[in-house]
Task: structure prediction
Amino acid sequence: MNDIIEKVRVYGDPVLRKKTDPVTVFDKELSELVENMVDIMFEYKGIGLAAPQVGISEKIITIDASFGESVDDIMVLINPEILHVEGEVSMEEGCLSVPGVWEEVVRPEKVTVHYTDVNGEEHKIDTDGMLARVIQHEIDHLEGILFVDRISSVKRTFLAKTLKSIAEGETV
Ligand code: ZN
Result:
């Protein structure tokens, strides 16, 4: 498993566009994969990571719920599902898979999410602010959606060249 994960996949990699499969087995292999994802998330200084970003097409998300303040506040969301959304807010987003790009994205302000933890136990949370934002961004990854899909077509036209360079493996 460790050999599979070498680096974060970037824009243009087909795995980022695939719909992921739900996790059905909660075993040691899953915890090892999650540990790996957490390490990569910190290594790349991300505040959230979805399994497709490391080439694994499964419904797994890790989040640094301290948003860069501590290494002890990790959330692991397996098979997450948004049950309810409320409000609307614009916030700037970036993504480890779309390096160097930051754009305002409008999303619901509050979310209710059902998920399973790494031990197979079910949870439901209501949240808003930064955490709601990160959860929605990461759940999008599980559906093959990237944040640049959610910006205006005018902004996307401006970004076209940059996205093409990322897809072609050039440094931005
Ligand atoms: Zn992302």
